[in-house]
Amino acid sequence: MKNSPFNFDEIVDRRHTHSVKWDHCPSDDVIPMWVADMDFKAAPCIIEALQQRLDHGVFGYANVPEEFFTSITNWFERRHNWTIDRNWIEYTTGVVPAISAVIKAITHPGENVVILTPIYNCFFTCIKNNKCNVVEVPLNYNNDYTYAINYEALEQALSDNNTHTLLFCNPHNPAGRVWPPQEMLKVSDLCIKHGVTVVSDEIHCEMVMPGHVYTPFASISPEAQEHCIMCGSPSKSFNIAGLQAAFIVCSNPDTKAKINRAINDNEVCDLNPFGLEAFMAAYNHGESWIMQLNEYLAGNYCLMRDMLNKELPSFHFTPIEGSYLAWVDVTGTGMTSTQVAQKILDEGKVLVNDGIIYGKAGNGFIRINFATPRSVVEEASQRIIRAMK
Predict the structure, then answer these.
(1) What domain range is 306 assigned to?
(2) Among 246, 250, 253, 251, which residue's Cα sits nearest to residue 269?
(3) What's the domain count of the chain?
(4) What does each C-alpha distance from 353 to 363, 368, 369 come to in angstroms?
(5) Residues 295-309: pLDDT tens digits?
(6) 0.90 cut: is pTM over it?
(7) Cα(238)–Cα(75) distance, rounded to whole angstroms?
(8) Are residues 339 and 218 in the same domain?
(9) From CA 303, how far away is CA 320, in angstroms rounded?
(10) Is residue 361 part of a domain?
């Protein structure tokens, strides 16, 4: 990447480092492009902050300082034009624990939680672990391989007397939509109409492709803010997911108190000292790194898409707006997505996600993580082409 002080082309060998992404591969010759973490070193500001903490040498229980909260409020004010009251923020160990705690706080066992599928697979487990019912509302899949919300089907699900929660994803994983305000406003209006709370997973919010703008769901209107609980973290965007730090934003004090109770009930109420330092360094000093990373990721996506489109006409990429996860329609191969993913692994030595894990609407798709040095993206693309041809 020209004139960048950050070297995203550097190959970092992650094998045998207890990496979920790399060490769960069946063999060392497999390129893993499945689980959503990146193969880039963290931003220098984060590594420096962690090194200073390491040099201190004592790693006792961490107290969360006021700087933690101001790092969040300043970042979202500066980057996303959203003013967050410090008193709206709760902290926890990750976005999945956050979602689980929020569902525990605002639902009762046996109630419905609506999701827009295909959707991140942990949504299903978070709902089921809280003994609630999963209600899938498939997104409309268009002839140009894009996705849109089916508002009629959504309203039908929201109008059920047993439904009080919509679990939303912005940007959407795996469909790659960065939802524009006008579309989220329609969702918000329907939820308010039917007394449904929006729980919005916004962990991918910094990963945005050129020409698109992320808008926090709760920022679209005062009414939306009252009816939305946002779960976020710099973990995905700054590649620090293993350090376990996240936050929840809820403007309703009564609901926030219930969430606090659920976080403590679930025993996910303490941050570790390294996660704390990395979190604050990312939001306080990581802006230039994330901007250049997004440029690099856009180049990776275009390279993979163009290579596969040229050689594999049966593969159709959903136009990506956010995240670093390509969503590919493989129904034209005449094979199931499970068969395609297995063929790519067996014959191409590339590990991708079978779309079926993201709900019924994911059948016929694969998900490919392209957040890795460009030479690896090119090699993986060549392997996929050879395997499928």
Answers:
(1) 20-41+287-388
(2) 246
(3) 2
(4) 11, 7, 9
(5) 999 999 999 999 999
(6) yes
(7) 14
(8) no
(9) 13
(10) yes
240 vs 246: CA distance, rounded Å: 11
User: 363 falls in which pLDDT band (50, 70, 90)?
Assistant: very high
Spatial separation of the C-alpha atoms in residues 191 and 159, rounded to whole Å: 9
Q: Which of 230, 251, 285 is the last residue of a domain?
A: 285
Closest CA to 216 of 202, 196, 234: 202
Integer angstrom CA distances of residue 340 from 222, 295, 369: 46, 30, 16
Q: Which two tokens stand for residue 66?
A: 């006021």
Dihedral angle sign, alpha carbons of residues 307, 308, 309, 311: positive
Q: What is d(CA 166, CA 163) in angstroms, rounded to the nearest whole number?
A: 8
14 inside domain = no
The DSSP result for 37-71, as a single string, is: --SSPPPHHHHHHHHHHHHH----PPP--HHHHHH
Indicate whether 341 and 276 sit together in one domain.
no
The residue out of 264, 285, 306 marking a domain boundary is 285
Task: Give buried/exposed letters for 243-259 (b at 16+ CB in 10 A, else e).
Answer: bbbbbbbbbbeebbebb
In a shared domain, residues 56 and 161: yes
Strand, coil or helix: 100:
helix
Which CATH number characterizes residue 337's domain?
Answer: 3.90.1150.10
